[in-house]
């Protein structure tokens, strides 16, 4: 039995990046052997095991053959005679198909090290096209390593374009598309991810409307926003995703939410930010507009929602909005108005709400006319 470190851990170590997780491949073993050593099998039909102490993943060397459509239609063969090279050839990119033996030596049958040096993302074999999820994975890797100068090999770019043209993206579940978006958002390079998808005519998997608007100007706008967010070390998914929806309509945002199953908090912040950006970004908003905004955001019970929208707008403008101080002070004082004070005055029923709203509006009037 031989154990090799594989995939992202090897790739990132060679690039000098922090290694966040380690995956291993085991050659020449059976499930029974690993289980007898205390490894815990993950699932019944997939040869992945958790180490008894480190809980890191150890997968038996395997081959795959396509059966059916989509990215789940594969049959795995994980017999003990499957070689390391047979396991590596089923991987997506050459830079992910490098293995490291326990003595530290590298096994690199597909010249992944050379592609790392040349900053090229290249598919390993024609089997790449059997898995449509790899379209999004390559876009994500290209975005993540863009700052290092990585580009997609021309032949891989052509293959991705052909896969998109053949409708492969339509076989992906909405949840899986969102997961890849979420991973790219956490990498801090979502504008690059979108740009890669646009370059292969695949941006419609997220938003046909965004694809129709795509161009250098929009790309650079998003790039500047994410650069600003990165400088502030902002990694909240909802705040970041809202940066690409500010230029869309409410209906278009709802379409995205339906297409890729946006989490409710991401969808809601995108809608709130789009709806209220004009009022909150204005140099001199009217008190009536500000009051309506506070009511619609339910500032009285959900002050954090208002704060999030302000942060979305700050990222989009690369600085706090012009009325930030006045808005935050008005919001704090208006929230402090207590309906109990009107009850103590003998006001009853529906008149309490009227008095409460009038008092809040008077507070806002002191900041905005």
UniProtKB/TrEMBL annotation:
Cofactor: Mg(2+)
InterPro entries (UniProt xref): CCA_bact, NT_sf, PolA_pol_head_dom, PolyA_RNA-bd, tRNA_CCA-adding_enzyme
Keywords: ATP-binding, Magnesium, Metal-binding, Nucleotide-binding, Nucleotidyltransferase, RNA repair, RNA-binding, Transferase, tRNA processing
Key word Cell membrane present: no
Domain Poly A polymerase head: 3-122
Domain tRNA nucleotidyltransferase/poly(A) polymerase RNA and SrmB- binding residue range list: 149-211
Pfam family, one: PolyA_pol_RNAbd
Family: Belongs to the tRNA nucleotidyltransferase/poly(A) polymerase family.
Protein name as catalogued: Multifunctional CCA protein
Organism name: Pseudoalteromonas gelatinilytica
